[in-house]
Design goal:
The complex is a heterotetramer of chains A (241), B (261), C (378) and D (304). Chain A is of the alpha/beta class and 241 residues long. Chain A is built from 10 helices and 10 strands. Helix content of chain A is 38%, strand content 27%. The termini of chain A are far apart. Chain C has a 7-stranded mixed sheet with strand order 7-6-8-9-10-13-14, with helices on both faces. In chain C, strands 2-1-3-4-5 form a 5-stranded parallel sheet. A two-stranded antiparallel ribbon of chain C has the order 11-12. In chain C, helix 3 packs across helix 13. The chains are: A alpha/beta (241), B alpha/beta (261), C alpha/beta (378), D mainly alpha (304). Chain A: It holds the Pfam family ABC_tran.
Chain lengths: 241, 261, 378, 304
């Protein structure tokens, strides 16, 4: 279906919900290969549900999700992850009771070649030296910022072709928010394709190439990040008209 | 501004060293529709829980009409005139709509357990009154046709109405609604707006709501208070709030540090 | 209805049939007036002990058919009614009440002592003679209103036999293991009492939990007490495990088992550990010289060898029949009197009764495990 | 035998008993870990393992003899077969109930237990079945202590299985995934872990371990019957709770502790062996009162 060769992810009129509650009301969006897109909107606008629908945790009730041109709407979550579409959920979800290293190892669950796993582990440790230092400790005993690094590092162990990041700065002190966003920036610059959900709309639009603003399960606005940044009407998506 | 009905001063709440509410001052006037908004994790539901007695704040005071509520148990708070609904609909299973709503009236029941067991005439009279009142509440929210159905079999929007009717059956002076529009479609939202307006206008009950749908909040509220990280950062009319830089920053993020990127 | 017409003309059969047909209403309304005598059989035909119960019922029926073939009792043919006690006291009460109200002249049976005890009062109230063929707990004796007769040796007789055997074989100290149920505990307590009264010691007296697989605690206790012999008073399934584990742990002394363990299955479970084990047993057919033709007839009729209590059940039926003949009528009191005075030579030996209606002479035999089966030791 | 001798003898006995408890408790705890189900049918899986081991041994005995070689082969084959049975039970009985209320799935487990028990009851007429293994009576006599070769082989095999399991769980991706699933299923799916497959592997391993215990118990004690899983099922549950339900090292520790407690408890003067079960269940209640999370279990605190 994809007309442009560089489109890695495409949503066509996707609807989804929880029981009788409708969360997504027909979402169309696109992420280009190598680019960073961001998904903005107030609480309850449907950002997290959009990411979950893409990664298969929530089943779309209608529409289509295409990843690298293939329909993954009905593909099981673990199979989607296997294909390289990696979702870092909100709240970090570090596996308590498993060491930092084991958390990272599990990130590479789908990677069968031990040499590749070792190489990726070294890369992650290079990116986050603190994880190397604390690799044998329980992952859940890391600080909030370190846990976020672990969550991202674990996703990188897959060798992701598309990274979905859900509120990576949530619950972090202001200084750590900036640090986390710097990491996201570095990943993007290194060529990773990213779809970012972020509470801090200003920072997200500064980093991203393209932005979508959700409201009540609809896409209310979309455009170049720079254009959206300059548009004051984005405030209305958050604070009403 | 009208007389203050609910007045919070200096309310602080913390769990295991984490501050959830930090010295919050907050007023809801008599006969007002007010809203409490703020980003995720700002402490809105915690504030509701403090008002209704589910949480005990470490310091401060919470008064309704000058009566201190801080030391009261939740059912006493209800008797003092405050009713609430919950973020997720919480109806009693395997009870009809009417029974659910009647359960709301029992906090006003005067007959004791003994007369209830003995089925004394006073108790029977009271039961009939409760029933009549519950039906009246259901009629008010517009679902009296469904009063004999199992409450949990109703459409979601109607379940929300049952919850509101149950809250009304306690004959409150102040109604707290926690995200009443969550999961409703746009038509149902409009109906909800009308209902909230009628509750205030016809029943003379003040309403305070927490709501994420800021569009709806702006339409209905006369006063809006904004909570961010446990701190009350703004208070005012909808237009003032929309233009308040502190509120915009709370919702869209700060500009500090942007240059580092 | 039995159709045996031996010694009866075609005419008579027809007359009887006509009689039965014309009095059908009377039969339905009043107590039935068959021209035959009914005998009750009280045994478990369902539940865990069903095999033994069915076996006893078969043996009684075999005796009945032999009696009928020889002309019946007092000129009348016998038939049987089975009451299933399920080896359960409550079920036994129901079964006994049903038998007592179904016009039987006497009852043969009683396998589980626990289930038999509560039936004594029911049969006693009805004045029915009751020949108890297998159940042999001493608890039956005080509960007997006077019309029940035990033709299996009681626990007391087994104890006497065991003490006699142990003493004769130079044993001084004896460990006793039971399972805490009425039967095995009774036997263990009585043995302990008699053994100590005879001037010997019981250095270990243990109780095993039923269904337990691991007996290591008991084995250790026994090994540390190091008795000359171990006496297991409960059933074979768990006894087999204990014997095996005792030998596995290196215990060298003598091992003996009570009549609850005299099944050939013991050898399958304990394996070679059961070689040389001594068993006290009520007289089973294979060890009774007089039972040779009984075994053949039984096997021919039912396609399998008679079980351990079949000879006693068979004897019980024959005894009851002879008592009715002696009494000369089906009057219960007369039959009971005849039983009290009985001196009957059965497959399992001579039957005469003590004033308590128990067997006057012990019929226990001593068996020994050899080559994977029981053989007569004496 | 002196008190000293009894102590060592009971130590050995406790280890043997504890090995059985631990092997069965492992399955209990692993299955609880991944699907939060108290698999009350687990004791009956042990029982079925015993019967399958017996059947296989009866076929093999004419060729390899009824000794340890035959038992070892029977055990391995029974483990594989019962492993698949565990997966099959999970698929048809538990998988459809995964989102049902906790009570419903518990009742399902009881139903599975009854089906297995009554199935074997019908096939065997409730009779004790002699296992038919011939393991000999040899052993090492240290004077104060007699340890049979059978006890050594048995404890050794149980230890080897447990070490193997520990290595599998701590060193392999599947083992890590198993632990991860007990913590956060959705996160596991996002990491590409096929949760359903890992649950199946867990049931396979848990059931196979129970089958190993069942076969060894049958061979060691000499007889099997349809009800033999009941008591050990409850004991294994007790062991799992003592160690901390959900914890694999906890189940091993709990099993050994329970075995030793029972062995020594019965030797306290005045407490005969008939008090054994009372003793172990009192310990269960004590643990539940004093340390409800068990010895190695982690408390799952509610997060605000």
């Amino acid at each position: 279906m994809s007309t442009e060769a560089e489109t890695i992810l495409q949503l066509e009129n996707v609807t989804a919900g929880y029981g009788r509650i409708i969360a997504l009301n027909g979402i169309d969006l696109k992420v280009e290969q190598g680019a960073m897109a961001t998904l903005l909107g107030a609480n309850g606008a449907g950002k997290t549900t959009t990411l979950k629908t893409i990664s298969g945790l929530v089943r779309a009730t209608g529409g289509k999700v295409l990843f690298e041109g293939e329909d993954i709407t009905q593909t099981p979550a673990h199979e989607i992850a296997r294909r390289g579409l990696v979702h870092v959920p909100e709240g970090r979800h570090v596996l308590r009771g498993l060491s930092v290293r084991e958390n990272l190892e599990l990130g590479a669950f789908t990677v069968k070649d031990p040499a590749t796993r070792r190489k990726r582990m070294d890369e992650v440790f290079g990116l986050f030296p603190v994880l190397a230092k604390r690799q044998h400790g329980d992952g859940s005993l890391l600080s909030g910022g370190e846990q976020q690094m672990l969550a991202i590092g674990r996703a990188l162990m897959h060798g992701p072709r598309l990274l979905l990041l859900d509120e990576p700065s949530m619950g972090l002190a202001p200084k750590l928010v900036i640090e986390t966003m710097q990491i996201v920036k570095r990943l993007s610059e290194a060529g990773t394709t990213i779809l970012l959900v972020e509470q801090n709309a200003r920072l997200a639009l500064k980093l991203a190439d393209y932005g979508y603003v959700l409201e009540g399960g609809h896409i209310r606005m979309q455009g170049d990040a720079a254009t959206l940044r300059a548009d004051n009407s984005i405030v209305q998506a958050y604070l009403g008209e | 501004m009208s007389n203050p009905l609910l007045k919070l001063s200096g309310v602080s709440l913390s769990f295991a060293g984490n501050t959830v509410l930090d010295n919050v001052d907050f007023v809801v006037g008599e006969g007002v529709i007010a809203s409490l908004i703020g980003p995720n994790g700002a402490g809105k539901t915690s504030l509701f829980n403090c008002i209704t007695g589910f949480y005990k704040p470490q310091s401060g005071s919470i008064k309704i009409d000058g009566h201190e509520l801080m030391k009261l148990k939740p059912h006493r708070v209800t008797q003092a005139g405050i009713a609430r609904t919950f973020q997720n609909v919480r109806l009693f299973h395997q009870m009809t709509v009417l029974e659910n709503v009647m359960s709301g009236s029992h906090c006003r029941s005067k007959a004791g357990a003994i007369s209830a067991i003995l089925g004394l005439p006073s108790q029977r009279r009271e039961e009939a009154e409760i029933r009549a009142h519950a039906i009246e509440c259901l009629r008010f929210v517009g679902i009296s046709d469904e009063m004999d159905r199992d409450a949990t079999n109703l459409a979601y929007g109607h379940q929300r109405r049952v919850e509101i009717a149950r809250a009304l059956a306690t004959r409150p002076r102040l109604l707290l609604l926690d995200e009443p529009a969550a999961g409703l479609n746009s038509g149902e939202k409009q109906d909800l707006l009308d209902l909230i307006g009628r509750i205030r206008d016809e029943l003379d009950i003040s309403v305070l709501l927490i709501e994420h749908d800021t569009g709806m909040v702006m339409k209905i509220s006369e006063r809006i208070s904004v909570l961010d990280h446990g701190v009350m950062i703004a208070e005012g009319a909808p237009k003032e709030i929309q233009a308040n830089p502190k509120v915009i920053e709370a919702y869209l993020g700060q500009e500090d540090g942007e240059d580092l990127l | 209805m039995p159709t045996a017409t031996t010694g009866m003309g075609e005419n008579l059969t027809m007359k009887i049939t006509a009689f039965l047909a014309t009095t059908a209403i009377a039969v339905a309304l009043a107590a039935p007036a068959y021209a035959e005598m009914k005998i009750g059989i009280l045994v478990p035909t369902t539940g865990s002990e069903a095999t033994y119960g069915q076996d006893m019922a078969n043996a009684v029926d075999l005796a009945i058919s032999e009696i009928n073939a020889a002309g019946g009792v007092l000129g009348e043919q016998l038939s049987s009614v089975v009451g299933d006690d399920g080896c359960d006291p409550q079920q036994a009460v129901n079964a006994a009440s049903k038998l007592a109200s179904s016009d039987v002249v006497g009852v043969v049976g009683g396998y589980c002592s626990g289930a038999t005890v509560p039936t004594l009062k029911i049969f006693g109230d009805a004045g029915l003679p009751f020949v108890i063929a297998a159940a042999n707990s001493t608890k039956l004796i005080p509960a007997n209103p006077g019309d029940a007769f035990m033709i299996n040796s009681t626990g007391n007789d087994q104890v006497a036999k065991a003490v006699e055997y142990f003493s004769a074989n130079g044993i001084k100290s004896l460990a006793i293991v039971n399972q805490g149920d009425a039967y095995s505990q009774d036997l263990a307590d009585l043995t302990k009492k008699a053994w100590e009264a005879a001037g010997n010691t019981v250095p270990a007296f243990e109780v095993a939990n039923k269904g337990e697989q691991d007996y290591s605690a008991i084995v250790t206790a026994i090994r540390s007490a190091n008795p000359d012999a171990v006496f297991w008073t409960a059933y074979y399934a768990d006894g087999g495990l204990l014997i095996r584990q005792l030998r596995q742990a290196g215990y060298q002394g003598k091992i003996a088992v009570g009549d609850g363990s005299n099944s050939p299955e013991l050898f399958n479970i304990a394996g070679s550990a059961a070689e040389g084990v001594v068993g006290f047993s009520n007289p089973t057919a294979e060890f009774l010289p007089a039972a040779k033709s009984f075994i053949e007839d039984y096997s021919a009729a039912y396609g399998s060898a008679p079980g351990p209590y079949a000879p006693l059940a068979y004897d019980g039926m024959k005894l009851l029949a002879s008592a009715i003949e002696t009494a000369g009528s089906t009057d219960s009191a007369a039959i009971v009197d005849a039983l009290k005075a009985a001196d009957y030579q059965g497959l399992a030996g001579e039957i005469t009764f003590t004033p308590e209606n128990t067997l006057a002479r012990s019929n226990f035999v001593v068996l020994q495990g050899a080559g994977g089966k029981w053989t007569l030791a004496e | 035998m002196s008190v000293f001798d009894i102590f060592f003898q009971q130590l050995v006995n406790g280890l043997v008993l504890g090995s059985f408890y631990a092997l069965v408790a492992l399955g209990y705890t692993m299955i609880f870990g991944v699907v939060k189900l108290l698999n009350f049918a687990h004791g009956d899986i042990y029982m079925v393992g015993g019967f399958l081991g017996f059947l296989i041994l009866s076929v093999l005995a004419p060729y390899v003899g009824p000794g340890w070689t035959g038992v070892a082969i029977s055990m391995v084959v029974a483990m594989i077969a019962v492993g698949f049975l565990g997966v099959f039970i999970q698929r048809i009985a538990y998988q459809p109930m995964l989102n049902a209320p906790r009570l419903s799935i518990l009742i399902t487990a009881l139903a599975v237990s009854l089906v297995l028990q009554n199935g074997v009851l019908t096939l065997t007429n409730g009779q004790y079945q002699p296992f038919g293994a011939d393991l000999g009576f040899g052993g090492v006599n240290l004077g104060f202590l007699f340890i049979s070769y059978n006890q050594m082989i048995l404890v050794g095999t149980a230890a080897a299985l447990m070490i193997g399991l520990e290595l599998f769980v701590s060193r392999t991706q599947y083992g890590r995934a198993m632990r991860a699933i007990s913590i956060d299923k959705d996160m596991c799916r996002l990491m590409g872990i096929n949760v359903t497959a890992v649950i199946a592997v867990t049931f396979f391993i848990g059931s196979a371990l129970a089958a190993a215990a069942g076969t060894m118990a049958g061979a060691y004690y000499g007889s099997i019957w349809y009800f033999m899983g009941f008591l050990i099922g409850i004991k294994a549950f007790t062991a799992a709770v003592i160690g901390g339900i959900g914890s694999i090292p906890g189940a091993m520790l709990g099993g050994l502790i329970l075995g030793l407690l029972e062995a020594f408890g019965t030797q306290i003067p005045g407490i005969g062996s008939e008090w054994k079960d009372v003793f172990s269940f009192s310990v269960l209640i004590l643990v539940l009162v004093l340390k409800p999370t068990g010895l190695l279990g982690k408390s799952e605190q509610e997060r605000m």
